[in-house]
Amino acid sequence: MIRTSDVAVGDLAFRLYESGDPAAETVLFLHGSGPGATGLSNWERIIEDLGQRFHCLAPDMIGFGDSTHPLDPPRGMGPFNELRAEALLGLLDELGLDRVHLVGNSMGGQLALLMALAAPERVGKILLMGSGGAPDMPVSPGLAHLRTFYDAPSAESLESLLGEFVFDLEPMRPVIDRVVKERMAYVERADVQRSHAASFDPAGARRFFSPEELAGISHDVLVVHGRDDRIIPVAASRYFADHLPNANLFVIGRCGHWTQIEHPTTFTTLLTGLVDGVV
């Protein structure tokens, strides 16, 4: 059963989706970016499935969903993500959690790395899934569509965009249709549009992780990527696996950007194995 709450962190507030026993090991799930993205739309099945094994937390990131949308947000994904990572560490304080495992999808992978750099003692093991933040990666047509979505926002455009997230659209169509319906309620909100515009401001700063920074992250990391990802190339995960000293790379065939949605059983097996020290 998924529980919903709102947690204040200073002047900000998180909408938090939660499952499992708070006495169990905690896994913090960090969703990716994109129009209308939320913690629940990224992680609902996963935190339902893993609630009997872990204490699962899946917040809406600051600037997404029903969490706070700052009136004057930082411009650019880099500065905005620094704010998001700082707020996430504050969330752990408010929840009384000294240390958590991190799962970061796309933008969420960048947040996981920022948290590990800022407060390594608060982070257990890390699973990066299709993570952004690798330098010198080409901008795919799908990522360009995501960034410029509000040039002509519509349900049809969102359906087309999310179709780029998966390897084979037909078996995933019911999921895509449901997520489009869920996300359009957010897409049309002015505060969501404001946060999206700030995150993807072309004049704003981006944030990449250097080999030297990654070499300083000593945590056990599992880097997971869909072989057929059309949003972020597999080369990005190879970069992280090459430079994180305690990383392993797992590439899933016939899989796009949404590993956890396209191959949920494989994903939960990998995550459980990582936490248990067998992956």
Keywords:
about 280 residues, about 45% helix, Rossmann fold, alpha/beta, eight-stranded mixed beta sheet, 11 helices
Shape category: globular
Largest β sheet strand count, sense and barrel closure:
8 strands, mixed
Q: How confident is the prediction overall: mean pLDDT?
A: 98
Q: Total strand count, please?
A: 8
Radius of gyration: 17 Å
Q: Output the number of helix runs.
A: 11
Percent helix: 40-55%
Q: Could you explain how this protein is built, in words?
A:
By secondary structure, the protein is α/β, with parallel strands linked by helices. The protein is globular and about 45 Å long. It has a single domain, classed as Alpha/Beta hydrolase fold, catalytic domain (Rossmann fold, 3-Layer(aba) Sandwich).
Short description:
This protein has helices spanning 39-50, 77-95, 107-118, 141-147, 155-163, 169-187, 190-199, 211-215, 234-243, 259-262, 264-276, and strands at 3-9, 12-19, 26-30, 55-59, 100-105, 123-129, 221-226, 247-252. It is an alpha/beta fold and 279 residues long.
Topology:
Elements (H helix, E strand, L loop, with lengths): L2 E7 L2 E8 L6 E5 L8 H12 L4 E5 L17 H19 L4 E6 L1 H12 L4 E7 L11 H7 L7 H9 L5 H19 L2 H10 L11 H5 L5 E6 L7 H10 L3 E6 L6 H4 L1 H13 L3
Helix pairs in contact: 2-3, 5-6
